[in-house]
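Archive transcription. Copying these from loose printouts into the bound notebook so they stop getting lost. Printout 1 of 2:
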Amino acid sequence: MGISCLERLSDKKNKIDGVMTMHQQGYIGRKMRQPKLNEHPAIVIATFGTSSRGQAAMDRVKQYLARDFADYQIYWSYTSEIIRRKKRLPSLQETLAKVEADGYRKAVVQPLHIFPGTEYQQLMESSLYFPGLRIIVSETLCHRWDFVEEVLEIVAADFLSGEKELNLLALHGTPLAADPVNTVYLGMQHLVNGLYNNVMAATVEGVPHIGAVAKSIARQHAKVKYARIRLIPMMFVAGIHVEDDLMGEEDSWRNIFEEMGLEVDCPTVICGQEKYYKGLAFREGCIHLFAKRLKRALKMMAFY
């Protein structure tokens, strides 16, 4: 029995419809349904985070960056697992996944870390898990020695200058003896000892060890009879480490030096109606340097 022209046309249409259906579910169809990719890079800020009164400083930084980079989409990520759980905040991996899902193919990660230590290396490693993104991890505040000198010039505005007055820079430090960043902390101590007559450096964790530095100060104090020492946080946010470890009521740096007969203080700043210890996030010059690092990375991304 012969096949009519109408049947042939109907059979041909069914085959075409089948091919179209296959394309809709296949590679070409999926590509057609995907949103347009954004070639403009996203900015991802990576910070340790804070669960203390340091949030006031963080809010100022957010305002500064939002104003300075108004043409970019800014995402925030947090490296502290404790703070993430406590405040339900995203990790870097979660944030980069969101960036990719939002249609970006380029991202610049700007750490708000002071030195390129273990956490910085972890940021670098985390960025490798996203082959669909071209990622540049920008530099930390004190990534180079000329950067360190720039920061010291800013912080020096709060240095005591009297003959019987001392300044002690409080670095975070690391408990890991094999961490390469220890060379930076020890180099920082060597640098300030050479640049200034009355500035020393110690860490909350690791070296230069606060116990060893305090004994050195005690030996000098026996000769010079210092009257006052200022503890200056070289930390992004002057949070719990400053409130407890430096200026706390018990087992603090303040206790150590008060027992020597020294007057102890720490720079403060007024924000709103409240007084806060002055971490680097409250120093606009330091935030400007972070922005400078970010702008450099964005320029590099234009060639990447």
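Printout 2 of 2:
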Amino acid sequence: MSLESINSDKLIHPKYRFLSILRIIGNSFFIFGYAVLLFNSVQLGIVFRMIGNLMSFPYFYKVKMWDMMTIRSFFAIIEIIKITQIIFWGGN
């Protein structure tokens, strides 16, 4: 599958190709992290989701997707609280 065929539906922003690819990979991490969180390990799932957030944020900022940044920030705050709880007080 070539990059041109993926871009046929404007999945990759023409001005921000690298950031678009980071967004796609970051969203994949975010979704995969959610599945890991539900079915396997809370700690590992949160780590995947946080990596996904970090990879997606630059694109959302550049194209001014403030709604996505806001909702993902709320998720990140909740995840940071949970990871802190796991690190300092143990447990799931």
